[in-house]
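Sample intake sheet
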Amino acid sequence: PLYPLLDAMRFVAAALVMFNHLRGRQFVSYSEVECTNSTVKQVFYCVTRLGVESVVVFFVLSGFLVGGLSVERFMRSKYDPRKYFIDRFSRIYTPLLPNIAITVGACIYFGFRTSAREVLISLASLQGAFGPSIAINESLWSLTYEVWFYMLCGGLLALFQSPLRYKWIAFSVVAASAFVLSRLQVAYLFAWLLGSAAFFLKGWRPGLLMCVGLPLMATGVF
């Protein structure tokens, strides 16, 4: 019964990210707006500045739905590294490849400068770690974190489950993930791990979860 609510949370978070990008590119800054109703102005600029916070919500939900579920499968000896990585790569690259193609096409059509290096960095989900993303698609920055969270999680689980002859592959994946994530903000990894840990609270009574969760949420909002 919790998953429809999580889908709703993802929808709201996605909408807030969209509004944040829209306001940042189409509206002037807060101090430049003359408004007779200061409350409307404050509410509008408050709601439309929640882009980063909404991305953090995405990371927590991703940790819950991917990290926590994968660890649970591992604990029940049902984790399949091959299926895990196929699922994750199809999840990422099915929307990413047309996204990059459309972005490059827009750059060419509107005359924005981009380079093959930026395209390759975005294809490898290394934007922000080893270079910028494609010039007009800065929102791809969060994908670097998502991809390498997946890689780290899958590599660690495979390291403890795979036959000895495959452990060096799993170790290489973990080492590469750690190297990439070391060049990014570690706080986002904490958010993902927090979501993974929260997966194992599902067995708690709903009333107890509310008593713990609502004060934490209120503290975060404050």
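Comment: The first helix runs from residue 3 to 26. The chain has nine helices and no strands.
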